[in-house]
Amino acid sequence: MSELVERPDAETDEPERIAVVGLACRVPGADDAEGFWDNLVRGVESVERLDPPADAPDGYVPAVARVKGAEDFDAAFFGMTPREAELADPQQRLFLEQCWTALEDAGCDPQRVRGRIGVWGGTSFNTYLVLNVLPSLDQERLLGEYPAALLHGNDKDYLTSRVAHRLGLTGPAVTVQTACSTSLVAVAEAARALLDYQCDMALAGGASLKLPQDRGYVYETGGIQSPDGYCRAFDADAAGTVFGSGVGVVALKRLSDALADGDRVHAVILGAAVNNDGARKTGYTAPSVDGQVQVLHDAYFAADVSPATIGYVEAHGTGTAVGDPVELAALDEVFGAEGLAPGSVPIGSVKTNIGHLNAASGVIGLIKTVLAVREGQLPPSLHYRRRNPRTDEKSPFAVNDRLRPWPTGDGPRRAGVSSFGVGGTNAHVVLEQAPAAPSPAPAEGGDLLFTVSARTPDALTASTGWLAEAVETAPAGQLPDIAHTLAHRRRRFPHRAAVVAAMPAEAAAALRKAAAEHAPGDAPAAFLFPGQGTQYQGMTAELLRSEPEFARHIDEVAALLAPHTGIDLRGLLSEPAAPGADDPLVDTRLAQPALFAVEYALARWWQSHGVHPAALLGHSLGEWTAACLAGVFTLEDAVRLVAVRGRLMGERPRGAMLAVELTEDEARALTGPELGIAALNAPQRLVLSGTEAAVARVESELTARGVAAKRLVTSHAFHSAMLDPMVEPFAAEVARVPLHVPRIPFVSNVSGTWITDAEATDPHYWAGQARAAVRFADGVAELLAAVPDAVLLELGPGRALGRFAAQVAGAGLRPVSTVRGARQNGSDRRHLLQALGQAWTRGVDVDLPRADGARAVPLPGHPMERRRHWIDARRTPAPTAAPAPTPATSTETSPAPAPETATDAVTDALSGAHAVPAAAPAPEASADAGPVERITAIWRELLGIADIGPDDDLFMLGGDSLNASQLVSRANRLFRVELPLEDFLDEPTVRRMAELAVRAQTDDPAEAVEQ
Prior knowledge:
There is one protein chain. It contains 36 helices and 31 strands. α10 crosses α11 (323-336) and α32 (931-943) crosses α33 (961-975). Mean pLDDT is 90; it is low at 1-11, 878-923 and 1005-1011.
C-alpha cells in the first residue's frame, strides 16, 4: 500500500479518463444507493411534513429531510471507543462509514490492494458540537484538559485525515470546504489527483447533518428556504429550498486501471472544472451567470466533448427565485451556442426529492446521474408544473418531470452535473456511459469456493444470510465473479465461513447453514503425510484434470520415476480400478512411489496457494515426503530412493499387521522375535507387525480377552524384524546421494521428537526408519507443544492421521482432510476446495482460487452493528421576559437563556457560562475506594466503557496513545503525582496505572504491589 503503482510509459492517443468504480450514500428516505435509486425512479419525495409544535412561531414550516439513524454508529468496527464516538461530529462518522461502503462497492480492501488511496471530502457546519457536546462540558473539563478527541472529532480540518487513519489510506487526505459545492469540488479535485498520479484510487464526497433533525424552520420572505416545504426547481412557483441531511461518497480510479483490474465501472468522468465568480455579481451570496458560464466552458473543454452530445443535466436546482433563472441562463448560453432545439435537453434536480443536502448535495447529484447514465433512465424532477417566467421560453432545456428512458443517440450516454456554492465556488462534471464490459467467458460450471467473513459472530450470521439471498437470485454464469469478489475483493475478518457449491440454489442453501469459525489471527499450518495403506488406484484422478499445478508436479515425479520402475504413474492415478478388479497399488513396489508422488504434488499445490508450513510430520513413508519438502533430499534423489525402498520391502517375505487397542506396555508384553510394535498412533491405538503365525496367535488371544484387534490389509510386516535384511543395503543406497540439513522443521518417526541435523543427514537413520516403530502419537504431541495453534492439513488420501492426532490432542483439534479416502464418495476437487475453505476459516493465510477473467460484482457489504453514541441536546426553554437579578445570597441558579446564535453558544461554552455537568457522567469511585477502583472510574469516564477490568489493555479496548496521555494526566491530578507515561505504555492496564500511582506516592514497590 505504500508504493504508488508505476505510471505506464506508453503514450496513447486516447486521453485518460476517470472511472466511477464505487458509490455509497445515505439520504432522506434511503439507507443505501439501491434504495435511493428506487425512490428516484418511483418519483418518491423524502421530505417529510411533521405536525408543528404547539408553540411554533409565525412562519414555522414543519418540513424536514432526515437521514435515519444519525445517532447510531458502529464504533468498534472502526476502532473507536464509545466515548470517542460520542464526542465526534456525526457528520464525520457518517462520512467515514460511507467511505468504507464505497470501498466495498468498488471491491477494494485497502489492506490488500496495491497502490495508494486518497480521500477528498467536506462537511457542513457542526451543529452537534454547538447544540449537544459543548453544553455538556463544564468549564473545568473543557479548559482544564482540552480533550483532543473533541478537537479531532469535530474540527473539519481532521475529517479526511481521520478517514485515512481509520481505513489505512496512504494517498492524499484533503478536506475541501466550498459551502454547497463542497462535495462536487472534492470529486473534481480527486479526479485531478488521479490524473496527476498522486494516488491510484480516490474517495470523494461530503456529509451534512442538520440538527435537530425533527425541527423545521422559520420562513423569511425573500429568504432561501421554501415557504411551504416544497422544492420546485425551475417551476414558476419556485420560492425556496428545504435543507436536509445526508452523505455520499464515490470511489474513483483511472479508467485504464479499472478496466485492467476487472472493476465494475458505473460511469466515466470525462472532465471536470472548478472556478469562482469573483466580484462578477451583486453580492457575496449571489450567483453569477458569467462565473457559471465559464465553469461550463472549462468542463466541456476538459472533457473534449461538445455540449450538444449531452443527454441530461443534473442542475444545482435549489428552487430559489434568483438561483434557478441564473443557472438556466448560464446553461442556455453554453448549450444554445451549439444550436440545440428548444426543450431538447432534459434537466432536473435531486433537491426536489430529498432537499438540499448542503455540503453533500453535489456528490448526491452526481450519484443520481451516475445511476441514470448506468441504467439508461431519467428519473423525474418533482413538483414541476410550468416554466419559470424568468427563464427563456426558447431554452434548450426542459424539466424532466416524469420517468423516461434515456434519449436515444448515436454515441454513448452523456450527462453534466452542476453544483454551486455560496461564495461563488462553482463545479461542473461531465459523465459518460461506461464502456461495455468484456463478454464473460462461457462458464464451465463446476464447484466454486465461497468465502465470507465478519468482525463479530452476529455480523457473520447477517452476512451469510444477505449473501445467500444475493446468490440465490444470481444467474449461474455470475457465480465465478461472486466467488472471485468474495475471495479477493473483501477484507478478511476473524469470524469466517466457507462453502463449496456449483449452482446458485445450492450455494444459497449451503451459506444458510454454514458453520462459523473464529480465526483471531494468522494461524500456522502443519502438513501431515500418511503412510502406505491409504493409497488406491485413481486417487486424485479429478485433480489431474482440474488442477494444473497439481498435475504438473505429478508429471514431474512420474518422469523421474519411470526409469526406476517402468510404470505409468499417471495412468495408475488418472483412472480408478475397474469394479471387482484388483488394485495394482496394493503392491508395495508401486504403492510407495505413487503415494509419495501424490503427497509431494499436494504439498506443492498448497504452497502455490500461499500455505508454507511451519512444521511437517509424516507417518512411515510420509516422513520421506516431509524430508524431501524440507530439502533433505532433492526430488530426483527422493524419487529414486522411495522406489528402491518399495522394491526392497517388496522382496521380503510376506507378513501381517494387527491394529490393537492396548497401551505400549501392554503391547510390548506380547512381542517377541517374530512380533513387534510397528506404530504407536494414538493412546491405546497401536499396530503390531510380524509373521503371519505370530499375528494370528496374538489376534486369537486378544479376541478371547475382549480386546479390540483388527487385521490391516497389507502385504508385508512393515516396521518389524522381518525387514532387518534390507536395512544395510538400503543404507548403502542412501549413502550414494547428498543429504542436507532440513530447511523446514519436521518430526522424526523414530524418536517422536524433532529430527536433528545429524539424524537428517545420516544414511543409517533413513535405512533404520523403515524398521523402527513409528512414534506418531509422540510426534503429534511434540508438534503441537511447539506450534499449539497449528492447523493440521493431512496431505494424502483419507483422514486416518487426523483422527489419530485428534485422539492425542483432544476433541478441540480438528485436522483438515484434503483428499477423499478410498471408501469416500464424491468429487476430488470439491473435497480439496472444502479443505482450502476450512484452512482459510481457521486462519491459515491462503491464496484463494482465482478465475481467469473474473470481475468484481456488487454484493452485500459488511453489516454495521450500530449502537447509540449520542449526547442529547440540553433543552432550555427560551425566556419570555428578562429574568430578575439573582440576589447575592441566593444558592440557586436561574435557568440560562438559550444562546441566540451558534457563535454565542461556542463563546458561552468556552467561557464557562451556562456550564452544566456532562450529559451522562460516569459513576465516580467512593472516597474510600482503593487505587484500582479510582483508576477504573477514570478509564470508564474517558473511554465511555462501563465494563473495564483491572487487567484490560487500553489498546485492546480501542484506545490510543492520545487516550494514554489523557489517562496519565487525570491520574496525576487525582493522586497528585507525576506518572511516567513510558512505564505505563509498557503495560497499559488499570492495575499497572494504579501500581505506578501508589509507587509514586510511597516510593515503596512492595506497598504498590500490595495495594
